[in-house]
Amino acid sequence: MRYFPIFVDLQDRPVTVVGGTEEALRKVRLLLKTGAVINIIAPALHDELAAESRVNWIARGYHAGLLEGAALVYSADAALNERVAEDAKALGIPVNAVDNPDISTFIVPSIVDRDPVVVAIGTEGTAPILGQGLRARIDAMLPQALGDLARAAAALRQRVAETIPPGNRRRGFWYRFFFGDVREAFIAGESCNYLAGVENLFAADTQTAQGRVSFVSLGSEDPELLTIKAQRKLQEADVIVHDRTVPKAILELARRDAVRVPVKGELYDGATDVLLAEAKAGKLVVRLSGDVSIEETVSVAAEGIAFETIPSVPAPRPAEVIAFPVREDIREEILRAAS
Questions:
Q1: What is the pLDDT, as a whole number, of residue 336?
Q2: Are residues 220 and 295 in the same domain?
């Protein structure tokens, strides 16, 4: 990964755009979604830029001093791109030269905007059409009211922090909020059902959290062969007990803040003790191994702890060559049958 994805706070910070044509306009349209102070340097402005009250036309001619103090710089003037990029780099300001990633220090991804929910898709400049296609698909998946739902969640955060302990219980609350009946009621504009659903979520969380162990077996080292259920369990897990031989690419699918406990993958390697202790503490535990251990499952069941086994998708076998009869073989069979 050459480009590290980040979100930059531009509230009340100056952003300088060099150029006043259609290319500059496209960048300004995006900047207008933020709280940035937009300054433009150009000999002339596109009509839409000239009519925009938030655009400050600070100069007709360019010189490096005009960039000082800017949080970001966009250059949308082909004749000036290299000069602007050099000047911005000298001043330590991130710069994007339109359609010229080789001299830019940052690039702009394709964006799905459900403010404050924003999804950014980048291809590091290698396949912009692919990025646009992914954006279109994601855009179609996300309801327009998703941003409003996120704001409604923000209004509940203080109450959640005061009444629901951190960890899997709090994550469970938010998961049910964003992906259950509460969300559906909110998206449908059913305010009474939404408010009742929220209260039901708070009431349900007063129950004691129950730990659970999910035994996930791996049929191969290919992360793409994990089942959807196995991937979901990795995302939900508080603790992941895994064989040391489990590939890093598979562990990368887990939540970043999940506790990872590597074990040898042998009998009596301490895995059972960890499974029991964490599940009894109310944690969601995943045991990730090549094969599900009967000894471990029996120990967990003996303690009355809920568990499940999630089988893997076996690695595909090489294609086998099947002998197919040729014309001579068929002729010989017919002659033998007739004799």
A1: 67
A2: yes
Half-sphere exposure of 171 (CA within 13 A, CB side): 12
d(Cα 91, Cα 107) in Å, to the nearest integer? 18
Q: What is the CATH number of the domain that holds 277?
A: 3.40.1010.10
Instruction: Give 137's contacts (C-beta < 8 A, 6+ positions apart).
Output: none
pLDDT at res. 265: 81
Residues 163 and 229 occupy one common structural domain: no
pLDDT confidence of residue 330: 61
Burial of 120 (0-12, 13-18, 19+ CB in 10 A): middle
Q: What is the spatial distance between Cα 189 and Cα 94, in angstroms, rounded to a whole number? A: 42
* Residue 284 maps to a domain: yes
Does the residue 282 lie in any domain?
A: yes
141 is a domain residue: no
Whether 66 maps to a domain, the answer reads yes
138-147, 160-169, 199-208, range with the lowest pLDDT: 199-208
Report the DSSP beta bridge partners of residue 288.
216, 242
Same domain membership, residue 67 and residue 30: yes
Residues 204-252: tens digit of each pLDDT: 866 666 788 999 999 888 888 888 889 888 988 889 999 999 999 999 9
Are residues 300 and 235 both part of a single domain?
Answer: yes
Residue type at position 186: F
Q: What pLDDT, on the 0 to 100 scale, is given for residue 206?
A: 65
10 Cβ contact list (under 8 Å, min separation 6): 31, 34, 35, 36, 71, 72
pLDDT at 331 over 80: no
| Whole-number Å distance between alpha carbons of 294 and 273 | 15
Quote the domain boundaries for residue 258.
212-310
Torsion, CA 98, CA 99, CA 102, CA 103, rounded to 10: -20
CB atoms within 10 A of CB 109: 18
195 and 282 share one domain: no
Domain finish residue from 83, 108, 133: 108
Shared domain for 242 and 303, answered yes or no, is yes
